[in-house]
Predict the structure.
Amino acid sequence: MAAAARAGECAAVLGLSGSGKSNLLGFLANRTLGQGNNPPGVLVDCNRLAEPTTAAFYCLVLDALAAAGETPPTLAGLESALQPRLESDRQRLCLLFDRFDGLPAALSAAIAGGLRAARDAHKYALTYVIASRCALDPGSELSELFFANTLWLGPLSESDARWSVEQFARRRGLAWDEDDVRQMIDLSGGYPSLLRGVNEAYAAGTPLAVEALSQHPALRQRLDEFWADDPSPAALAASRLAHIPLLRQSPAAPSELTSKEQLLLAYFQAHPAQVCEKDDLIRAVWPEDRVFQRGVRDDSLAQLVRRLREKIESDPSQPRLVKAVPGRGYRYK
């Protein structure tokens, strides 16, 4: 990634939930870019987007550039803030966008042209690195910028996984023997979030066995979040996760859901990280016009959400996947 930015090229870091994308971008921004011949890096956390509008997005970028309030939150404002940094051939800058896939589809389409225009105006001086759970739409104005430099994150290397386990044990004052360390790496496949969950569960006294580990909250929550994205076989293969023991079975198989629960979950999965309005959810689950006109009360929807949570949440009383947005509806993470 740093080599691509150094060469004036854009790059994409792809990875499923828990693969360490945010950690990698943070490391690039704070420890790698700006050092030696690498261009300076500025991290833009798309999780912090205040609302799904172009103005909010440009405000987020300007804030990362320490230019919020100095220029309007528009493409022109962004270019004005970039100009002093890129005013000579020797000046370069890399913008790193974490959780780029968390932006609503309509917003991504709206800003794609602007980001591409800014890049074209400062080709090889302005570069982007995006972190996403999936590749960009091939039809996007931005997608071709990343074709040459796309990295899928997956399991840690043997040495990195071992270092991670040893650091965890050291922080907790624990002494794990070689067999323990080997089992933890094998069961998690060295996948970052699962390896951390196995460390936490074993430190709490859980046996190193798939069934027992899968029921511990440290693993259950991570597994729920991983499968909630409904990763495709192609994505699992690209991430090299097909043979990890803890990922051999999805905890929320569609066959376990009723037809209404499947419709509700499908709507949530089609609108990740967005506020799903109650009326839209009702239309999606009860599509018959006559039913909607007669009125499906809020408590009918609330009961359906409750039943879905009981099947996909590790702790339905403290939901992590389907969260209520008071007065509006629900947000699916």
Observations:
- The mean pLDDT is 88.
- The radius of gyration is 22 Å.
- The chain is about 45% helix and 10% strand.
